[in-house]
Design goal:
Layout: H1 4-16, H2 21-37, H3 41-45, E1 48-54, E2 59-60, H4 61-74, E3 78-82, E4 86-90, E5 93-104, E6 114-126, E7 129-139
Length: about 140
C-alpha cells in the first residue's frame, strides 16, 4: 500500500490541476490564429461571445462572421503570427493585449500582403470557457 500512495497522490494532483486563466486566454488567442490560418471560420467563432462588439461598435458577431467569410474566401494563404500576449485578470473578466502580423498570399485584401495589428481584447468566462466579447484593433505604422 505504501508504494501505491505516491502514485495515487500524483494521479490525484494531475486530475485536480487546471490551466491557469491567463494561459487559457493565450491558448484561445493562438487557437483563433491557427483556425484563421486553416481557414476554419467556425473554429475562430467558437471563441467569440454571441454579443461580441469590435472596434467600438463597428462590427458585431454577425459582421465578424461576414468579414471572416470574405477574407477567407479571398485569401489563398493567410498567415497569422501572434506576439507576446499580456493578460490582466479581474475575476471572470480579463483584458488581453497583443500584436499580430497578418499575411495574405493572394495579395487581394492586404495591398502589401502584410499588416501588423495591435489588439486590445476583452474576455469573460462563459460555461467554464473564456470567450472574447470585445476587441479593438488598429494597424501599426
Amino acid at each position: 500500500m505504501r508504494r501505491g500512495l505516491p502514485i495515487l497522490l500524483s494521479l490525484f494532483a494531475a486530475a485536480c490541476a487546471h490551466t491557469p486563466d491567463a494561459d487559457a486566454i493565450r491558448h484561445a488567442i493562438q487557437s483563433i490564429a491557427d483556425a484563421a490560418q486553416a481557414q476554419q471560420r467556425a473554429s475562430v467563432l467558437a471563441h467569440v461571445a454571441d454579443d461580441f462588439i469590435g472596434n467600438d461598435g463597428e462590427l458585431d458577431r454577425a459582421g465578424l462572421e461576414q468579414l471572416l467569410r470574405a477574407r477567407l474566401l479571398a485569401g489563398r494563404s493567410i498567415g497569422v503570427t501572434i506576439g507576446t500576449v499580456e493578460v490582466e485578470l479581474d475575476g471572470d473578466r480579463a483584458t488581453a493585449r497583443f500584436e499580430a502580423t497578418v499575411t495574405d498570399g493572394s495579395g487581394r485584401w492586404l495591398p502589401d500582403r502584410r499588416a501588423v495589428l495591435q489588439f486590445v481584447t476583452g474576455w469573460r468566462r462563459q460555461d467554464r470557457e473564456w470567450r472574447c466579447y470585445n476587441a479593438k484593433w488598429s494597424e501599426t505604422r
